[in-house]
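Slide 14.
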Amino acid sequence: MKRIVLFVAANVAVLAVIYLVLNILGVERIFTQNGTQLDLGALLTFSAVVGFTGSFISLLISKWMAKMSTGARVIGTPRTAAESWLLNTVHRLADKVGIRHPEVAIFDSPTINAFATGATRNSALVAVSTGLLSRLNEREVEAVLGHEISHVANGDMVTMTLLQGVLNTFVIFFSRVIGFVVDRVLLRNERGTGPGFFLASLVAQILLGILATVIVMWFSRHREFRADSGGAELAGRDSMIRALESLRRETQPAQVRQGAELPEAVRAFGISGGRLGLGRLFMSHPPLEERIAALQRAS
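Slide 15: predicted structure.
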């Protein structure tokens, strides 16, 4: 999940900075013709440039952000037998799918976790937690690594960048259109773009941004099933299923481990996922039960 959350957060931050800078410089005045109507062509071009710039900057700094936020230590020369095995396993899986060897890193965390990120298929980073290495056996760890390598081989980060760029473009474009309509029609401002335009644009950008996040998360959930399938092909279906089952046991709330289910109203907000409720719309990963069931059906 770190890979998706970091990417979306970086994208939002970059867009916010660009938005503030352009407003200070007065660049958004190019949207209006004589202050009376929108220049939709100029607005769409501007929206695409800003939208894709934010998305690609997020992609380019994704490895750096991941390392900084998790404190991941890249393995250069292995210090232990476990690090040597981890490095060799990642390289072997990368050779299987035909990509350049990614950087391999370990970050301190007691939880079972791993992620892959990077600007291209051949400049990726695969990182695992100390909890994953200590609590899963080698076959299960290999399955998790296969899942992450599949994300890289499938080009998921680049595809997500393009999707995010398109969504950014439409968010910026339609938020300005809404701001202009509010300023002109509701507030009856006939002199350039007043405070109403900027306030309405900002509110519309936030609301449309939430909708865009829902779409990005839907895409992320869809790609998780494909990465699970890739991990199963690389390390074995049974190993992939056992790894997901270990993660499910790790993430189940205490009352679930004791046999009591979470209420339907809040189940979707649990880290292990759920099937009902609006919380599912913002989940970057499908519920583990659904991922396990999908692998079992494919066997």
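Speaker note: Strands lie at 32-33, 37-38, 73-74, 103-107, 114-118, 124-129.
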